[in-house]
Amino acid sequence: QVQLVESGGGVVQPGGSLRLSCAASGFTFNMYGLHWVRQAPGKGLKWVAFIRYDGSDKFYADSVKGRFTISRDNSKNTLYLQMNSLRAEDTAVYYCAKQKKTYTGVHPFDYWGQGSLVTVSS
Amino acid sequence: DIQMTQSPSTLSASVGDRVTITCRASQSISDWLAWYQQKPGKAPNLLIYKASSLESGVPSRFSGSGSGTEFTLTISSLQPDDFATYYCQQYNSYSTFGPGTKVDIK
């Protein structure tokens, strides 16, 4: 069965950095594009970033461009989100999500992790 | 960037009611639209993709329609398990979610 397990969340001061990981199992990891989506407390879903199945292309929401970096290690079946210059408004639960279809393009998300809470506060 | 809106933001309904939620895109997205259900403290669950295709395992009381800029999610007969928040998502250009529609008990 498909599993996505996030880790690395926690409390960080404004301006600080954090790296989230998403360990995947139950599917052929290197065939699927992957996303990060966040949800601030009591708020809606916000797409954060996408990485192609082979890591060759990466796309970001304007709100995180230049501060966050998405990456993957296909040998370790793991997705990452490096978050730098964190702000209070980055406080959210961060979900990793797998696309429904293989290889190219952007597709809906058929599996999600349980989420990892990032709190940016002094 | 493509913006998504949903209406209503909150919907009060009773078990057995027919429920319709509307989602609009700021520009045409063809039929590259999905719907998700989310319950408190849980990750979202894919219900509908490509505007009208039912995800495997999702009850047939859920249906989707529309194309271009206007879409609807319909629940034909609301069940107790359906009280939740529903989000639309465009994936024509990267991804954008709508603000959500909370379906609560009347």
- Oligomer kind: heterodimer
Helix content of chain A: under 10%
Q: Considering residues with a beta carbon less than 8 A from a beta carbon on another chain, report the largest interface and each chain's count.
A: A-B, 20 and 19 residues
Give the overall shape of chain A. globular
What's the overall average pLDDT of chain A, rounded? 97
* Unreliable segments of 5+ consecutive residues of chain A: none
Helix-strand sequence of chain B: EEEEEEEEEEE
Which word captures the global form of chain B? globular
Given the helix and strand composition of chain A, which structural class is it?
Answer: mainly beta
Helix fraction of chain B, binned, reads under 10%
Low-confidence stretches of chain B: none
C-alpha-based Rg of chain A, rounded: 13 Å
Question: Which value, in Å, is the CA radius of gyration of chain B?
Answer: 13 Å
Largest sheet of chain B: 7 strands, mixed
Total helices of chain B: the number is 0
What's the total number of strands of chain A?
11
Report on this model:
The complex is a heterodimer of chains A (122) and B (106). Chain A contains no helices and eleven strands. In chain A, the strands form two sheets. In chain A, strands 2, 4, 5, 6, 9, 10 and 11 form a seven-stranded mixed sheet that branches. In chain A, strands 1-3-8-7 form a four-stranded antiparallel sheet, with no helix packed on it. Chain B is 0% helix and 50% strand. In chain B, strands 2, 4, 5, 6, 9, 10 and 11 form a seven-stranded mixed sheet that branches. Chain B has a four-stranded antiparallel sheet with strand order 1-3-8-7, with no helix packed on it. In chain B, strand 9 and strand 10 form a beta hairpin.
